[in-house]
Amino acid sequence: MNWLSPWIHTTDKCNMACSYCFVQGNRVMEQPVYDALEKMLLTSGAERYNLRFAGGEPLLVFDKWKGFAERMLAYPQTHIEVLTNLSFIPDDFVSFAERDRVNLSVSLDAGSKYKKLYDGILERLARVQKQHWIMTTLTEDNVDELIELADVVGSRKYGWSISTDYFWAGKPAVDDLIVALIKAIRILQYHSHDFRNFTFNNAGIGDYTGCCAGVFMFSVDCNGDISPCQTLNQKVRIGSVFTGYSRTERCTHGTCEDCSAKGFCSGWCPLYHKPGGELCKAIKFVVYEVLKGVNYAE
CA-to-CA distance for 65 and 166, rounded, in angstroms? Predict the structure, then answer.
């Protein structure tokens, strides 16, 4: 087993209420769960641990998981990603986030309702001296602001992961979505963006391996239950940090075998995406537009 990457659901709590979020409640992960997860990881035989601290909003409970994270960083094979809206920065977080092998993925949608693009978030991004990843969920609320966000991402050399809402119902229309995405990509090209650090619905030209849910990647719920991925917390249980888990292979899409974008797209989410539909068209347009601007001699 070369690597393990648990999504650590530190809390249900959040200081935002995004319409597409599937997390609800007020639970908080407690110390016995972190202790059991630590033991499970260290006895797994894995050569690398990619720990993803998420929620809810994980910075609301930074004091709860900081000690566990620091203990795991004592092992050189540990890498940490904090998935946060960065709406505030707790005491001592900047010094933690700037440590080697710690990275931030910041949820920033730039819409009119939540996760807006404003001076405060840009100042907090600048406070932590790292090349962040920006995570954007597209909805009808924010697609028109994608161009402005692209300029920020491109000028600051951030990575960018764009996804459509898992429960997307066709708004905005796919053609409008494609136009907005292509405009954003051209702005990134203007800034000489490294497109190895860009994905749309997990399609890209980087080293993304596709969905490994339930195998190398899994989700640890607040109570220690293990699910294949975070969207299945409290729905599908394949074990716990106290007893271990049974690995479950993902269900691949046979219809993707002859797709022209197969080498760049992993079929997105096998739970919520049905291949061959309108979103596949958007993924193909994005892949082709990115490829046109890639300089393979770099």
Answer: 28
| CA angle (95 as vertex; 30, 107 as ends), nearest 5 | 70
Contacts with 225 (C-beta within 8 Å, 6 or more apart), sequence order:
233, 234, 237, 239, 240
CB 195 within 8 A of CB 228: no
Q: How confident is the model at residue 209 (pLDDT cuts 50, 70, 90)?
A: low
Asked if residue 86 lies in contact with residue 99, where contact means CB atoms within 8 angstroms, the answer is no
Pairwise CA distance, residues 224 & 25, whole Å: 16
Is the confidence at residue 108, as pLDDT, over 90? Answer: yes
Give Cα separations from 201 to 140, 160, 273 (angstroms): 16, 11, 10
Q: Rounded CA gap, 17 and 152, in Å?
A: 24
Cβ atoms within 10 Å of 41's Cβ, excluding its own: 19
pTM above 0.85, yes or no: yes
Whether 109 maps to a domain, the answer reads yes
Question: What is the domain extent for residue 178?
Answer: 5-292
- What does DSSP assign to residue 160? E
- Our separate counts of H helices and E strands in the chain read 7, 11
Task: Report the pLDDT averaged over residues 98-116.
Answer: 88
For residue 155, tell me if it sits in a domain.
yes
pLDDT at 278: 82
Please check whether residue 298 lies inside any domain of the structure: no
Assign residue 96 the CATH number of its domain.
3.20.20.70
Q: What is the pLDDT of residue 296?
A: 43
Q: Taking the mean position of all CA atoms in its chain, how far away is CA 262?
A: 21
Number of folded domains in the chain? 1
> Would you say 86 and 114 are in contact if contact means Cβ atoms under 8 Å apart?
no
